[in-house]
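pasting for ref
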Amino acid sequence: MYALESFSQLVDRGTFVNGTTIVDHPRYQFRATMIDTSRHYYPVEVILQHIDAMSYSKFNVLHWHIVDSISFPYQSIKFPEMSKQGAYSPDHVYTADDIRQIVSYAMNRGIRVIPEFDTPGHVREGYAALDPPILTTCYDSNGKPIEGVGGTGPLDVVSQISEEEQADGMEKHIYTRLKHIKTIKNIFFFFNSFSLFSNYVQLFTLYRH
């Protein structure tokens, strides 16, 4: 596939190809770009154009930072209220059909799509729509609730969303924002006590329960 891409770039005026010998191989197996559709919503056609540009330079991974505390454009089947409240507008969402189209388009160009859903930090927009509430209040060093930052969220909602992603062709991926919950008292002592910095299975179990 990559060789054919190189060949296509040698074609002159759709007819001629210069006699060329290319000896090449990728230096890195993981060659990625990232788009952040939480802070800047990209229409589907723009994402497809981005994927085309990736294929020209033989990138093979699209890191899709699809949601964040700023907005929640992912239209979940299990939790539809999250995008209804968390997206910039009803027009600024990605449906299951949109995602399948993007994943299929990327796959045909040798590109994997890896989504990022932040947790337990960066979980404001969308999460507040869930009833009953699931966010844990964050406190400052004086023990007062921090206003306007939402809270920290469990992994169980995100893990269920990631199952939807897999059904749409994306890889299962949960991005833990551990550094964004440093305001919790003795968090580093707690994590070290249970070896949670290296034992993510145990960390996942704790957040589910």
